[in-house]
Amino acid sequence: MSHDTATETASNSIAFENVTKVYDDGTEAVTDVSFSVSSGETATLVGPSGCGKTTTMKMVNALVEPTTGTVSVDETPVSEYDPIELRRKVGYVIQDIGLFKHMTIEENVGIVPDIVGWSDDRIENRVTELLELVRLDDDVRTKYPQELSGGQQQRVGVARALAAEPEVMLMDEPFGALDPITREQLQNEFLDIQAGLDVTIVFVTHDIDEALKMGDKVAVLQDGELIQYDPPAELLRNPNNAFVESFLGEDRQLAQLQTVAVREVMGPANEAPTNDGGTPLSPDDTLRLAVQNWLRSETDVVPVVEDGTVVGSLSEVHIRSIFDGRSRAIEENHV
Amino acid sequence: MVSLVETVEWMGANSDVLVRQSIQHLSIALTALVIGIVLWVPTGVLVRNNERVSQVLLGASGIVLTIPSLALLPLLIPFFGIGEAPAIVALVLYSALPIMRNTVVGIAETDGAMKEAGRGLGLTDRQLLVRVQLPMAYPVIMAGIRQATVLLIAITTVAAYFGAGGLGRSIFAGIRLANADQIIGATIVLSALAIVLDYGLATTVRLLPNSEVIDT
């Protein structure tokens, strides 16, 4: 099971090549889809109901078999794996969570380590580690799923999926059934958690904001076809067609601000006002926050400060610069 | 005239007979129940994914249940003789429907999300069955077993008519002698047995974490 880490880091962890899925009843769920996810990246699959996103995801852990084309995990076609072995090294989180009601949280989290034969001690330590990771009190380990809130249950769901140290995680609308506040909290925490892990993630959602927020790359699907596969900023800047544009929504520009860091567009430090120009920005702030500060500021230029030193300046011109080229691209596409 | 005092007096005077017949009664009914569980739970597990076979088996066991025991028992005598053997065979057949049906239904009704998660996490069909579906189905299967228990205790009474022992002897004797105390006395003991067994089996479900007793 050991892999050469040197080749792994450079490889595509997951790859789809001309994958088509036709169900027995003749429904073509996925049509000629090709894309790949680099090791350690998160790809979000987004689209309206019935666009084939879940079917696409399920081909990664052999829950669905492609009709034609090849899906590969770690450069090996899924068809060459034993499906059970493959699923044990691919974490799986679903919207309905599916915790085992007759098992304690500890038993739920430890089920995959248990069936692959870890020792009791090792499982116990792993559970402790995971509960801490998903920010649950250690005393939940002896509780049953029904005694936990929906948000806590999905934390357990994530911990269970991570238990056997998977290299790949599949998440099917994991936060979809939660209330908006809990959802946002879990999204943020999950981004934190994921930053500390070397795991490749396929994340299915119907919520474009979630897709843009969680994904290093976003795959927009419509009627089983992959319409566009790009990083969030690129997707917002250059939507491929009218469908993607409308799917991104009316507030696309605001969403776009969210995807860009101040560092990427700021001007030179010597343009920053020497007097107190309002709340200083950090270069890692999003442009969305920057706009808010800029609107509140009394000056036209806001200083960008890192470790107490002014490292740049931000004005309307810099903010607008991210939209340059966008209008041009749209026009080209519409002609 | 029937009076409860006289019935209790009769029960006191014949307690040795009642105890002996209760033991016989339980021995017949519980032997059949154990064989029924050993036979029908695994059968239910085996046919769980084959709808046609399970429909046929459940249909057949439903038909068996509609045959009156007074008719089924004499039909078995040519094959199994007189006494406990034909009684136990008949009782095992009668237990098929409640036990097998509840096994099939209990497994089929395991929460879809749990099945999906289990499969996605890499549990084999067998692991999913043993670790998830059977524990989840346990209360439903137990409800079927309890139903079968009460049914078998009742039907065992009739078996006394065809040479098997049990409390049926006192009841049939009471009918022949027109002794109401004897009939009612034996019936009280019979009901008590059924209630105690049913309660005991329900308790085994209550002891499990997060399992609710399903009323039958």
UniProtKB/TrEMBL annotation, chain A:
Q: Which GO terms describe its cellular component?
A: plasma membrane
Q: Where in the cell is it found?
A: Cell membrane
Q: Which InterPro entries match?
A: AAA+_ATPase (IPR003593), ABC_transporter-like_ATP-bd (IPR003439), ABC_transporter-like_CS (IPR017871), P-loop_NTPase (IPR027417)
Gene Ontology molecular function terms on file? ABC-type tungstate transporter activity; ATP binding; ATP hydrolysis activity
Q: What is its EC number?
A: 7.3.2.6
Q: Write the record's keywords in alphabetical order, separated by commas.
A: ATP-binding, Molybdenum, Nucleotide-binding, Transport
PROSITE patterns noted in UniProt: ABC_TRANSPORTER_1, ABC_TRANSPORTER_2
> Gene3D superfamilies in the record, alphabetically?
P-loop containing nucleotide triphosphate hydrolases
Question: ABC transporter domain: from which residue to which, for each copy?
Answer: 14-248
Instruction: Name the SUPFAM superfamilies on file.
Output: P-loop containing nucleoside triphosphate hydrolases
Catalytically driven reaction(s): tungstate(in) + ATP + H2O = tungstate(out) + ADP + phosphate + H(+)
Q: How does it assemble?
A: The complex is composed of two ATP-binding proteins (WtpC), two transmembrane proteins (WtpB) and a solute-binding protein (WtpA).
- Write down the PANTHER family for this protein, in alphabetical order: OSMOPROTECTANT IMPORT ATP-BINDING PROTEIN OSMV
**Family listed:** Belongs to the ABC transporter superfamily. Sulfate/tungstate importer (TC 3.A.1.6) family.
Q: What is the stated purpose of this protein?
A: Part of the ABC transporter complex WtpABC involved in molybdate/tungstate import. Responsible for energy coupling to the transport system.
Descriptive protein name: Molybdate/tungstate import ATP-binding protein WtpC
UniProtKB/TrEMBL annotation, chain B:
Q: Which organism is it from?
A: Natrarchaeobius chitinivorans
Q: Which SUPFAM superfamilies match?
A: MetI-like
Entry GO CC: plasma membrane
Give the keywords, sorted. Answer: Membrane, Transmembrane, Transmembrane helix, Transport
Q: Which residues cross the membrane?
A: 26-47, 56-81, 87-108, 151-171, 183-202
The UniProt record lists the ABC transmembrane type-1 domain at 22-201
Keyword hit for Membrane: yes
What the entry lists under Pfam families is as follows: BPD_transp_1 (PF00528)
Q: Indicate what this protein is called per its UniProt record.
A: ABC transporter permease
Compartment(s) of residence: Cell membrane; Membrane
Q: What is the protein's membrane topology class?
A: Multi-pass membrane protein
Q: Report the sequence similarity comment from the record.
A: Belongs to the binding-protein-dependent transport system permease family.
* Main location (coarse class): membrane
Q: Gene3D superfamilies recorded for this chain?
A: MetI-like
Keyword Chloroplast appears in the UniProt entry: no
